[in-house]
Specification:
Elements lengths: L29 E5 L3 H7 L4 E8 L2 E8 L2 E7 L4 H16 E2 L4 E2 L7 E10 L9 E9 L10 H4 L2 H11 L9 E4 L2 H7 L4 E8 L20 H7 L1 E2 L2 E7 L2 H11 L2 E11 L4 E2 L4 H16 L1
Parallel strand pairs: 1-4, 1-7, 7-13, 8-10, 10-12
Antiparallel strand pairs: 2-3, 3-4, 5-6, 7-12, 8-9, 8-13, 11-12, 13-14
Helix pairs in contact: 2-7
Bound molecules: 1-O-phosphono-alpha-D-ribofuranose and uracil.
The site of uracil has 10 residues, from strand 7, strand 12 and strand 13.
C-alpha cells in the first residue's frame, strides 16, 4: 500500500494536520465552511455544547453539538486556493491513517455546507436575499490540476458557457460542478432562491469590478447575466463554492453553498448591514442540518 511521505502530508508534532491544526478525532462528518473567521463564533454561539476550538492563521474551527448532532465549523479564509488546503486536509483527517500514512480502505463521506456572502448578477436578486447554489462555475482553475476532472464536471454547460462568452484563452478554463442534491434539499426554504454561482479568483477584476484598473473584457458581466442554458441562468459571484463542489465531487464528499447577497451588481447597491441577515441564514441552515 502506498505510504504518503512526510513532505506530501505534513503532520504537526502534536498529531494535527499542517494548516488546520486539527486531529482526526476533532471533526464531525457534518462540516460548515465559512470564509470569515468571525462567522465561526456566530455559528457556534447556537451550539448546545462546545467540544473544541482551534485556530491557526485564518483557519479558525470549532466542533460541538446541536440537537444531539455533532457539527464542525471551519473558516476557510478567502479564495479557492485556501479551499484546496481546507478540503484536502479535512479529507485526510477522515480518509488517511495518520499512523501508517496510507489511504484507509473504508471511505468516510463528509457533508460540507458553505455559508457565505455574495454579489448578485441578476436584477431581480435584491441585497439581503439568500441564494442556494445548485451549480458552481469555477473561474479559478483549481479542479483542472486534478486527474479525473472530466468525470465530475457538466461538460455541456461548460462548452455552452465558454462559447457564449467567447472565452479569453489567456484565462483558465472554467469548470462547472453540481451541488449534492440531498444537501440542497436540507437547505431549501421559502426565502431561498436557487441559482448558479461563479467563484472568481479575485474580488475586483475577476468579478468585473472596475476601480482604477480597466477590465480586459468590459462586457463580461453583461454576457454572464444574459447567458441561459436549459432552465439555468448565472445568479451570483463569490470566491470559494466551485472548489468546494469540485474537490468534494472528486473526493466523494457532498457539498452545497448558500449565501447572503450583499451587493447587486446591476443595481449598483450594497447591503446596509448584512450581519442580522447572516444570523437568520445561519439559523435556517442549522435547522436544516439538525432536524
Ligand atoms: O463571506 P465569505 O464566506 O468570505 O464569502 C465571500 O466574501 C469574500 C469576499 O469579500 C469571499 O470569501 C467571498 O466568497
Ligand atoms: O460581490 C461580492 C460580494 C461578496 N463576495 C464576493 O466575492 N463578491
Amino acid at each position: 500500500m502506498r505510504r504518503i511521505e512526510e513532505s506530501e502530508l505534513i503532520i504537526n508534532p502534536d498529531g494535527s494536520v499542517f494548516h488546520l491544526h486539527l486531529k482526526p478525532e476533532d471533526i464531525a462528518e457534518n462540516i460548515i465552511l465559512v470564509g470569515d473567521p468571525g462567522r465561526v463564533e456566530l455559528i457556534s454561539s447556537f451550539f448546545d455544547t462546545i467540544e473544541l476550538k482551534k485556530s491557526n492563521r485564518e483557519f479558525v474551527s470549532c466542533t460541538g453539538t446541536l440537537n444531539g448532532k455533532r457539527l464542525t465549523v471551519v473558516a476557510t479564509g478567502i479564495g479557492t486556493d485556501n479551499i484546496d488546503i481546507v478540503v484536502n486536509e479535512l479529507d485526510a483527517l477522515v480518509n488517511i491513517d495518520f499512523e501508517t500514512r496510507t489511504i484507509k480502505e473504508q471511505h468516510t463521506a463528509l457533508n460540507f455546507v458553505r455559508i457565505g456572502t455574495s454579489g448578485a448578477l441578476q436584477k431581480d436578486l435584491p441585497v439581503d436575499c439568500w441564494l442556494l447554489s445548485e451549480k458552481a462555475i469555477g473561474f479559478d482553475g483549481l479542479i483542472n490540476f486534478y486527474a479525473g476532472r472530466n468525470k465530475v464536471v457538466d461538460d455541456d454547460f461548460e462548452q455552452a458557457f465558454t462559447k457564449s462568452l467567447n472565452w479569453n484563452p489567456l484565462l483558465t478554463a472554467p469548470y462547472v460542478v453540481d451541488a449534492a442534491p440531498d444537501l440542497l434539499s436540507k437547505l431549501v426554504g421559502e426565502n431561498v432562491i436557487k441559482g448558479v454561482t461563479i467563484s472568481a479568483p479575485g474580488f475586483y477584476g475577476p468579478q468585473g469590478r472596475e476601480l482604477r484598473l480597466p477590465i480586459a473584457d468590459a462586457n463580461i458581466n453583461d454576457k454572464i447575466t444574459a447567458f441561459r442554458y436549459d432552465n439555468h441562468r448565472v445568479t451570483n459571484y463569490e470566491m470559494e463554492c466551485s472548489a468546494i463542489y469540485g474537490l468534494s465531487a472528486l473526493l466523494e464528499h457532498k457539498a452545497a453553498t448558500v449565501c447572503v447577497i450583499i451587493a447587486n451588481r446591476l443595481a449598483g447597491t450594497a447591503s446596509k448591514d448584512y450581519k442580522p441577515v447572516m444570523k437568520k441564514l445561519v439559523e435556517h441552515v442549522l435547522r436544516g442540518l439538525t432536524k
